[in-house]
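Retro notes (design track)

What went well: tokenization of the new backbones is finally stable.
What didn't: we kept losing track of which sequence belonged to which structure.
Fix going forward: every design gets posted as structure first, then sequence, in one message. First example under the new rule, 129 residues:
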């Protein structure tokens, strides 16, 4: 076996099944990424299945607890994955400060190259000043 890189394990959280399926298909086509699960609510994103993921793509507006609240709970864990909030709001329209989210991305801006660039940016510690 060679030196294979462990893929980025992704959980997709959205209450709209066609969108979840489309994002899962997009992520599944990316080298170095694998979808390990999908959830339809904030509560589902908190289940044991969500443990062991590297990246959560989290819709903001969900039934039950919001994506913002689910993100707060997920990122409070000691082994927390990085969470990217997704919504139909334009970037800059949504205040996600204090949620623990690593980034926010408008659903309309979600594209393979954008996701890879975003992961590259948020998964590395910032350079020392």
């Amino acid at each position: 076996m060679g030196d294979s890189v462990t893929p980025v394990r992704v959980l997709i959280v959205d209450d709209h099944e066609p969108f979840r399926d489309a994002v899962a298909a997009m992520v599944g086509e990316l080298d170095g990424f694998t979808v390990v699960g999908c959830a339809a609510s904030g509560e589902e994103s908190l289940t044991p299945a969500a443990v062991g993921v590297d990246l959560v793509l989290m819709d903001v507006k969900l039934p039950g607890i919001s994506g913002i609240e689910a993100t707060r709970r997920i990122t409070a864990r000691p082994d927390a994955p990085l969470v990217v909030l997704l919504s139909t709001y334009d970037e800059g329209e949504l205040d996600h400060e204090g949620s623990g989210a690593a980034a926010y991305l408008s659903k309309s801006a979600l594209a393979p190259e954008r996701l890879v660039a975003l992961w590259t940016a948020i998964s590395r510690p910032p350079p020392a000043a």
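Added context from the reviewer: Helices lie at 17-29, 42-45, 67-75, 112-122.
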